[in-house]
Structure formats: C-alpha cells, structure tokens
Design goal:
With 288 residues, the protein is α/β, with parallel strands linked by helices. 41% of the residues lie in helices and 17% in strands. It has helices at residues 8-25, 40-55, 71-83, 102-108, 120-127, 136-147, 167-174, 195-200, 249-255, 266-287, and strands spanning 30-36, 59-65, 89-92, 156-160, 184-188, 204-207, 225-228, 232-236, 240-244, 258-259. Strands 5-4-6-7-10 form a 5-stranded parallel sheet, with helices on both faces. It has a 3-stranded parallel sheet with strand order 2-1-3. Strand 8 (232-236) and strand 9 form a beta hairpin. Helix 1 packs parallel to helix 10. The radius of gyration is 19 Å and the shape is globular.
C-alpha cells in the first residue's frame, strides 16, 4: 500500500468504466443540477462537474434560479424534473438560501432520481442494506478503502463527525457484512469527551468534522490509516488561500501508515461517485 492514498488512479479507472459503458451502449444519462444564486464556490464546482460529465458521455444541465425563489416555486420546478422522462438524475447544489426548507426540498425529489442519496427512502435503504443510492462522499471513502485494499473487517474505525451526509451513513456502511464493512465503528463528535483517547485507539480514523487541521498527529497511533474527508479554505501568504483537510497533513504523514491528501483525495472520488449514481439512475429508468 502506498503511504499517500491519492485519488487519481482510482478515479481514472472509475471514469474509464463509466465512459466505456455509456459509449458501448449508446446511452445518454442526463443529470440536472439545481443551482440557486451565484455562490462562487458552488458555481465553480458545478461548472467543473459539467465539464467532467460531458467528457464521459453524460448530459449535464444546470437550472439556475434567483436566490429569491420561493419554496413553492422551487417545489414546482422539481416536480417538472421528476416527471420528465429525459431527466435521470437531480442534484441539489448547496448552500441554499436560508429562507428555503432544505429537508422539504430533498423530500420532494423523486427517490429514483435522487443521485445525492439524501432522500429518506434512500437513507432507509442504506440502513437496511437494501439497494438504493448511496451518498457520494461516504461511497467515495469505501471506494478508496477497496481500491487500496485496506482491510476493515474486525478493525476499530473512528469517525469524527455525525452529519447526515457523511458520518451517519458512513457508520452504517462500515457495519455492513461485506468487503468494506464488518468493522467496529465509533462515531465521535463535538460532545465527545477525551476525543484523543478514541482516535489513538483507532486502526482507521475518518475525519469529517469540517474544521481545518483539527486532528493533530499526536491524536493518531503510528499504525493508523487516515481518511480525510474535510475540505477547508484557509489563508495562504503566497496564493491568498489554499485548501486543507480536517487533519494536520504534514506531521501526520510522517507518523501514520497511510493518509489521503487534500486536495486530491476523497473529494475527487466524490464527484466520480455522483456520476456513477447518475448512470445507475439511468439504467433504473430504462429498465422500468
């Protein structure tokens, strides 16, 4: 196993497989991204996703809405996409304006087009180990573990963060009776007492707390494997800003057995998992 668990060789394989399957079958999977407002980071991500998707054979459209859009208007727009047979996947780009009820909007998306995997039906399927869309970031973590042949069975895995989009679904996935499961999982969070005690005992630490370089090297044991889910923008004297993870990378890299970088780690695989979900949605649509 390489010490730096980079995404590049993994996503190269995923994208090649997706492109080959689409071109071989002359398929046209269509993803629609709902983008509200002009948030620069969101806009940048959407534009990159659009370019990546189109290169692999996907049709990627963006529905841009005014930030003043009402809840009712947005729900009506989603219903139009739900009933459009030429739309196979719907993605809701965040953040949303504060006046919108995110949970109601997620509930309104057809579960068969919910490529983010956040609809309660898909979350329920995940917990019950049934077929459905798996949220992209937790799935990206599993793909990295599998690609680099990191054994999880019987291992003690500590997840730092209990969000609905990463921590909770990931904990359930790691408990499954399969190759990337069968782990003993501890979920830590802001109210956990003596966090270093837990992380020092972990064979695998997955940091998903959203705080720049929160996890220090002295919180990890030397044989640990670290998966850093965090992406945080911090000031940089030369470039103005840079992106770092939730783990103090340089010092941790010297100490641990293996670690994912930021950027170039989990985030890159997350995008590939989204497009993989779009293809799955397309195949579900054409087979029904």
């Amino acid at each position: 196993m390489t010490k730096k668990l980079i995404a590049k060789p993994l996503i190269k394989k995923i994208y090649a497989d997706l492109k080959n399957e689409i071109s071989t079958n002359a398929w046209n999977p269509h993803l629609v991204i709902i983008l509200i407002g002009e948030d620069p980071a969101a806009k940048y991500y959407v534009e990159n996703l659009q370019k990546k998707g189109m290169k692999k054979g996907f049709k990627v459209s963006t529905k841009l809405f005014d930030p003043a859009i009402s809840q009712e208007q947005l729900l009506n727009e989603i219903e139009v996409l739900n009933t459009d047979s030429n739309v196979h996947g719907i993605m809701l780009q965040k953040p949303l304006p504060k006046h919108l009820d995110e949970s109601e909007i997620v509930m309104a998306i057809n579960p068969d087009k919910d490529v983010d995997g956040f609809h309660p039906l898909n979350m329920g399927n995940l917990v019950l180990d049934r077929d459905g869309f798996v949220p992209c970031t937790p799935n990206a973590v599993l793909q990295i573990l599998d690609f680099y042949e990191i054994e999880t069975e019987g291992k003690h895995i500590v997840i730092i963060g209990r969000s609905d989009i990463v921590g909770k679904p990931l904990a359930n996935l790691l408990l499954r009776k399969n190759k990337t499961g069968n782990a003993t999982v501890t979920v830590c969070h802001s109210r956990t007492k003596d966090l270093p005690k837990h992380t020092k005992e972990a064979d695998i630490v997955i940091a998903a707390i959203g705080k720049a370089e929160f996890v220090k090297a002295d919180m990890l044991k030397e044989s640990a494997i670290v998966i850093d889910v965090g992406v945080n923008q911090v000031e940089d004297p030369e470039k103005g800003y840079k992106y770092v993870g939730d783990v103090e990378f340089e010092a941790s890299f010297e100490k641990v057995k293996a670690i994912t970088p930021v950027p170039g780690g989990v985030g890159s695989v997350t995008t590939a998992m989204l497009l993989s979900n779009v293809l799955k949605a397309f195949k579900k649509c054409v087979s029904s």
